[in-house]
Every structure is written in C-alpha cells, then in structure tokens.
Amino acid sequence: MAEQATSPLSEAHNVSGPGEAPAAGPARPPATPEGMALAYGSLVLMALLPIFFGALRSVTCAKSKNASDMPETITSREAARFPIVASCTLLGLYLFFKIFSQEYINLLLSMYFFVLGILALSHTISPIMNKFFPANFPSKQYQLLFTQGSGENKEEIVNYEFDSKDLVCLAMSSVVGVWYLLRKHWIANNLFGLAFSLNGVELLHLNNVSTGCILLGGLFIYDVFWVFGTNVMVTVAKSFEAPIKLVFPQDLLEKGLEADNFAMLGLGDVVIPGIFIALLLRFDISLKKNTHTYFYTSFVAYIFGLGLTMFIMHIFKHAQPALLYLVPACIGFPLLVALVKGEVTEMFSYEENSMPKEEPGDSKDARMETDKKEK
C-alpha cells in the first residue's frame, strides 16, 4: 500500500488544495492555529507509534519459528523494482478514477480493505489481548493451509496458524471493520491505518542497509516526481476512500467527532522509513553492545524529517512529498553516527540472516543437533 500513499495535506476530501475551496460545495472556513497544531501533532504521534512498536516486534518476528509470523524479506533487486511497480500502480489507479465511477471503485476497495483491515488489526492487538485472558481460557490450535499442486510439486500459498484467543481478537476487530464499512469514520480509518503500518514495519524486513538505501532512494525520486511533477498522487489520495492514510481533523475543537476538515499522512511515509528504522534496531542488537544508538538516532531523524515536512507544507500551502525530507534524515543521521564511531563497515556488512535466531535457552538443543550431525 505504500505506493498508494501520499504526503501530508490539509484536506483529505475532494478539494483543490490546502486552504482552497472544494471542487463542489461551499468553501470551508480556514483551520484555526490551535486546530492545525492539534492535527499535525496527532499525526506525528500516530506515525511514531507503529514505527516504535513495529520495530520492537520485528526483532521477535526475526526469531520466530511460526510459519504464519515469518517476515517477508526485501532483496536489493526487489527494492530497485519497487518504485517502478509503485508508479504503475499509482498511474493505474489514477486512470481508473478518471474512466470509471469513483463510487463503485471505492465500494470494491472498501470491501477489500475491510477484510485486510480486520486481519491486520487482529494480528496487532493479539499480543496485548493475550495478557488479559484468564489462565484457564480454553485454547485450541487451528491451521489454515492452502496449497497448490500435489506430491513433490506441492507449494504452500497460505499457511496461517491461530488459536481460540486469536478468534476472539478477530471478532473484536470485525466490530471496527463493520463500523468503518458503514460510517467510514476517521477513527475507524486510523485504527486500520495504524494496524497496517505496524504490521508493515514488523513483517517487512530489509536484508541489509544497502537494500534500505536503494529502496528509500528510489521512493525518494518516486515521491518527489508524483507530487511536484504531476497532480496524480494528490488526485488519487483525495479520491481513494480506503485506510491507506492517517487522518486527523483540524476542526475537531469546533465540531467534535463529526469534524471533516482533515490533515493526512500517507501510510507509505510511515512504513517505508519504518522498516529501515527497524533494520537499524536489529543491527544494534547484532552489535551486542546493549545500546540502541542507531535505532534512536534514526527515530529522532524521522521526527525531525516529518516535522520539517509539515513546516514546509504550512509555509508554502502545498502538498509535500514527505520522503523528500524523511529519506535524507533517516539515512544521513545514522550514517553520520557510524562515521563518528567508525562502524560504517559493520553497518553495510550486516545481513538480516545474521540476526540470532535462537534464544539463550535454545542453545542446548542447537548444540545437541550439531553433535548429531558431526557424529
């Protein structure tokens, strides 16, 4: 979904641009300074939460032996192709909205993201909800397995393992899903958006820092071109009624929960830097120095880049490609720290598969298995 995301805007509905009148209907009153500060501050906070907790969960995910929790590793070749695929997808959506009825397209998209949102939210809240289940709660194991072919040519398409507790989380997430489907309320949108972001940071892994630089560099060009070079991204973002962006009303203080003048931040501006920040956390752990220097440096760099994005957008009253500011900050700050500490070689030689897979308690079993092979 990163390819469909956009940068912060002052309006999330069908408008010509920040502070301008909508394409149809009366002009809205300009947002108050208090309302804008609350909206932008809330967007920053909502962006930081999935990055921070997603990065922490990515460490556990990297060590997981559960097939349903295994991360998807992005290689250098895939990272280089990603901006091209993203551009084709974005342009395709733009043409679809120009040719076909926006109402029917968004109806299909709503059903699609309804299912994905429920699964993502369920996976997000599952570790939290497990702490509240009583010890005697009946827990049965289930496995959803979908394969293709037979015999030696059999290939797993879906292999998802879950238990009774996960079913409870799924039911709770379905309530949010129905709320979103019926009302399209911004709170339900944000719950799904946060879940998508956290799952993306947790489950999408870069195999090394070089791949991260390729991915962020390519999407840097992609974001700048489609925001400044054309109106394609802004048009799609305003037409696309799906939880692919975090939104917060600038008129919340005046209209309460029924506010409708939104500032927004695309999920791509959260997930793409987020998976790079998560990689640096795993690199910190691989150094075995009990410090998270690179993680915290990149985290602060993200805050700086996002704050600068919003400041520039507010000054120039124009949609901004957030990756224009986030990419140099998230790559430059940690690289500068590595130069100072003399760890540039270690940073670029780190490979994702060098992440320790075994917990200390598992080392005995690993040694026994090694002894058997040697014999």
TrEMBL record:
Keywords: Endoplasmic reticulum, Hydrolase, Membrane, Transmembrane, Transmembrane helix
Membrane-spanning ranges: 37-59, 79-97, 104-125, 203-228, 262-281, 293-316, 322-340
Location of the region described as Disordered in the Swiss-Prot/TrEMBL record: 1-30, 351-375
Any Pfam family hit: Peptidase_A22B
Biased amino acid composition, Basic and acidic residues: 354-375
Biased composition (Low complexity): 17-26
Domain of life per record: Eukaryota
InterPro entries: Peptidase_A22B_SPP (IPR007369), Preselin/SPP (IPR006639), Presenilin_C (IPR042524)
Location(s), subcellular: Endoplasmic reticulum membrane; Membrane
Gene Ontology terms: biological process: membrane protein proteolysis involved in retrograde protein transport, ER to cytosol; signal peptide processing
Gene Ontology terms, MF aspect: aspartic endopeptidase activity, intramembrane cleaving; protein homodimerization activity; ubiquitin protein ligase binding
CC per GO annotation: cytoplasmic side of endoplasmic reticulum membrane; Derlin-1 retrotranslocation complex; lumenal side of endoplasmic reticulum membrane; rough endoplasmic reticulum
PANTHER family hit by this protein: MINOR HISTOCOMPATIBILITY ANTIGEN H13 (PTHR12174:SF23), SIGNAL PEPTIDE PEPTIDASE (PTHR12174)
Family: Belongs to the peptidase A22B family.
Stated name of the protein: Histocompatibility minor 13
